[in-house]
Each structure stands twice: as C-alpha cells, then as structure tokens.
Amino acid sequence: IALTCGNTVVLKPSEKVPLTMARVAELFTAAGLPDGVLQIGHGGVPTVEALTDHPDVNALTFVGSSRVAKIVHDRARSHGKKVIAVGGAKNHLVAAPDADVAMAAADIVASFAGCAGQRCMAAAVLLTIGDQPALLDAVLEKARALKPGQRGGEVGPLIDAASAARVTRLVDAAEADGAEILLDGRKGWAPDGAEYGGGHWVGPTIIKFPATMAAHPCLVEELFGPVLAVRVVADANEALKIENADPHGNAACIYTQSGATADWYARRFGAAMVGVNIGVPVPREPFSFGGMEGSKSKYGEHDITGDGALRFFTWTRKVTTKWSTTPNAPPDAASFAATM
Q1: Where are the beta strands (DSSP E) in the chain?
Q2: Which residues are catalytic?
Q3: 20 φ, ψ to 5°?
Q4: How far apart, in whole angstroms, are the C-alpha atoms of residue 73 and residue 322?
Q5: Of the candidates 24, 151, 189, 309, which lies 20 to 30 Å from 266 by C-alpha distance?
Q6: Does residue 295 contact residue 246 with C-beta atoms inside 8 Å?
C-alpha cells in the first residue's frame, strides 16, 4: 500500500528472519519495480534508530512487542513523524454454552497452536461460560494429535532458544503456583529438535487456571508460543469484564450459535478485530488491520491496511481558491501546457 500510494520504502526485516523479505524484494525487482523504490536495510537497534531519526523518513511503521512499539512511537513522534507502531497481544476467546463443540474445538486449536503461537493474532486465553467438559475434551483431543514438523498441519519450532526458554519458564511458574497442566508441551517433544532436524521446540500446552490466579503472567503477558490458558467464568458479563480489563486491544472471539449473543459481544469487546466463530479474525487488505487505539496493541494513528493505510501513507491537502473573475483558463495556460 505504501508503494502504491507513491512512496519509496526502506524496509528493515526482523534480524531473526531476514530471508523472506529479501525474497520478496527479488520478486518486486522481477516484476519491474524501479531500482531504489524498495530498499532493505538489515540490522538491529542501530538501524531502527537511524531510520527513526533520519530527516528524509517522513512516516514510519513498526510491528513487534508492546515495549519496543512504544519506544519506536515516542522516538518517531519526537521528530514530528507520522508513526504507527503495532505491539503485542493477549487475545481472548469466549465460548458460550451453545457453541458448536466440533467446530469450536478445531478452530481453537488452530488459533492457539498454528504458527506455534508465534503471531499477534494467536489465541491466548479461552474463557468458557460455565463448565464445558465436552468442549475442553475436544480441544485436548485435537491438540494431543498435533505432531512436530514444518509441513501442513504440524507444529513448528519456536524462533530461538530464548523464546523457548521463556515459554517453558512461564509454564513452569504456572504449575508451581497451582495451575493445572491439562496438556504438557514440555514433555514428549525433543526440546533441542534432535529428532526434527534441529531448532527449539515446545509442544502445544493447555493450562487451566483458577480464579485466584487471574493476575498470573500466563494470563496477562504475551507468551508467543503454543500455550492456551483456560478459565471458567460464571456468565457473559464476567467473560466480558476479563477481556475488557486486558490492556491489549488486538483481537477477541465469541463462539456461539446465537446471533444475538454474537452481536452483544461484538459491540462490547475491547478489541479492534472481533471474530464470530473465528479464532484468528484477520481482516483482509481492503479492511483496516490493527489494534485498538489507546491499547498496548497499537501506538500511533490510522492502520497498516485498508482506508486507514491510505490516509497514513499519503498527505492530505486542502486547496482553497478564489477567482476575481471566471476566466476560461488561467492567463499562463498556454505556457504552462508547453511545459507538461
């Protein structure tokens, strides 16, 4: 969208995964994009700071953790730049008592374990209204059936050793503090990836938390791994209160067969992207993707897709004209036309 709006773009991929965007740049070149319109600059913090501070950079977008998103936003704004910095997420799924068990279970597992949970749209917390043993059993059955690997339908490795260690440490803490480990991805999967060609692996993990552990890090921090926290709540209002209390305003979902229930939640969720029976409610490019303003999921104005992106990647100009007469053409029309 930035290119289509007439901008040149300097892209800094994550230093952990630089190859994908290098290939995208090659495809742009093969498609005929002129040299220099899209450039890639690799690196870490110094590269980010250089781009943020450079006077020729008029607008800046970022996707990453909430902590870094705020740093990037504040630094860019201090230079008077347009900026949208998309941060982390803690997406909540709410299961109403009338949820379709088979459909919801398949979707919940795909949402929390897909991409090994390493996406801002991954499910993090499942709130069941009342005890729903059939749904929980179905989720566990499908999650247990997942295999390690990098083919379709398999769960891949985490990005690095530090990420795997953090996920494992938080699961360890949940268990030590009294949560019930329903499915333990720390066991049965080779952590060093010896059996899968290397890498850092944590299997799908499901943890049930009592109400007394509502403030546990596994329930409030973004884990970025295939971990689903489960809580049983008394009613719809309690589920909504928990979701609204989370400072991340990225995504939320309601599983139900009732249109009225779906509408009630869709109007009240404290999230910018809402799914009805869809645990990864990603709006496609004609619509605006991004977290709720004022939350830890988005710092800055507009969005990175949709009409918000068109406003972000362009300048809005207001032209006011007053003619003393109404000529057929400006006096210098002939000489102006000759220069075009």
Answers
A1: 9-11, 38-40, 59-63, 82-86, 91-95, 123-129, 180-183, 205-208, 227-233, 251-255, 273-276, 298-300
A2: 120
A3: -60, -50
A4: 40
A5: 309
A6: no
